[in-house]
Amino acid sequence: MLGQLPAITDKNVLVGTSNADDAGIYRITDEIAVVLTTDFFTPIVDDPYWFGAIAAANSLSDVWAMGGRPTVALNIAMFPSNPDLFPILQRVIQGGIDKMAEAGVSIIGGHTIKDKEPKFGYTVMGLIHPDKILDNSKAKPGDALILTKKIGTGIVSTGVKSGISSNAAIEEFTLSMATLNKRPGEIMVETGVSTATDITGFGLIGHLNEVLTASRCRARLHAGRIPFFDEAVRLVRAGTAPGGTLENVKIYSPHVAWVSDIAEYEKVLMNDAQTSGGLLIFVPGEKKEKLVAALQKENILAAHIGDVLDGPIKDDKHIIVER
Ligand code: CO
Ligand code: CO
C-alpha cells in the first residue's frame, strides 16, 4: 500500500519507505536522529490487560530493531461507545501504561475514536545516532542469524480464538508477545552487529527476505534449528493456519529454495505472521559467541538459525532452507 507514496527528496530522511525497513528515521543534527513507527491492531488475546501490554510491546519493537532507543509514545485507540465496556477499556489502557513504564517510555498524548471493533496501539518516537542505524541494507556474508523469540504466534492465536488451546499454551504465547525486545536490542547495540529486524506480519521468511533483498545477499536457514511454539506445531499439523500466514507462503515461496525434505507444515510455520515477535539479529561470525552468551546470561532465547552466504543470487532465491 505504501507504493503510491511520493518519492522522498528531503536529505534528512535517512530511512524512508524504499527498503521496507522497520521504522522511518529523520536526522535532526549530525548527532541526533529520530526513529518513528506506528502499530495498532484488533485484540489478539481475550484478556484486555494483556492485549494492551502486547500492543505496547509490539509498537516499541521496531525502534529497537533499528538500533534505536524509544523515548515517547502517543496512544491510538478505537473503542465501542458502550459505557458497559469502559472497565474493559480501562484494563487495555492500563496494560499499555504498565508496559510503556517497564520500557522507560512516557506516553505524552494520543487520540481515541468510536469504532465497533476495538483497536489499540501506539505511535512511538525513539532516538538514534545517524551513523549507527541498523537498516535493512547492512547484512553481510558471514553474518550469523540469531533469533530471540519462538515462532508461531499467528497460528496459536487462531487456536485460541477457536477455543482449542490449553491454558498453559495460551500463557506461554501471551508472555512471549508481551516480552519487550528492549534488552536484546540494547545487547546487540553494545555488541556491535551488522543489522537487525523484528519478526512481525510477514513472518520469519518474509522479514529475512526484506533484509536480504535490501542487502543484495542470500542466506541459509536450518529448519531444524528454528524454535517454534509446541502448540503452533501441534495446531499446524492438524491443519490450523491463519489467512495472512498462508498468504505469506504464496508471496515469499518464489524467493525460497527448499533444499531438503522440508514438510509443508514447516513451510507454513516459517511464514507464520507474528505479533510482537523477536528480533532477528545479523551478527558478524566472529562476534556470534559473544552475542549469544550475553543474551543467554539474561535468559533471552538466542537461536542460531542460519547464516548469510557469499556468492551470487540465482533465480531470485534469497533463502535456502536446509534441515
Ligand atoms: Co519491524
Ligand atoms: Co511495524
The small molecules bound here are: cobalt (II) ion
Structural class by helix and strand composition: alpha+beta
| β-strand amount | 15-25%
Mean pLDDT score, rounded? 96
Helical segment tally? 10
Order of helices and strands: EEEHEHEEEHHHEHEHHEHEHEE
Shape: globular
The percent of residues in helical segments reads 25-40%
Can you tell me the residue ranges where pLDDT is under 50 for at least 5 consecutive residues?
none
- Largest pleated sheet: 7 strands, mixed
Provide the spatial order of strands within the biggest beta sheet: 8-11-7-12-9-13-10
User: In the CATH hierarchy, what is the class of the largest domain?
Assistant: Alpha Beta
User: What's the number of structural domains?
Assistant: 2
Number of strands: 13
In CATH terms, the superfamily of the largest domain is: PurM-like C-terminal domain
Structural features, described:
With 323 residues, this protein is α+β, with helices and mostly antiparallel strands. The protein folds into two domains: 130 residues, PurM-like, N-terminal domain (60s Ribosomal Protein L30, Chain: A), CATH 3.30.1330; 188 residues, Phosphoribosyl-aminoimidazole Synthetase, Chain A, domain 2 (Alpha-Beta Complex). It is built from ten helices and 13 strands. Helix 3 crosses helix 7 and helix 6 runs parallel beside helix 8. The two termini are 35 Å apart. The structure holds cobalt (II) ion (2 copies). The site of one cobalt (II) ion has 6 residues, from helix 1 and strand 8.
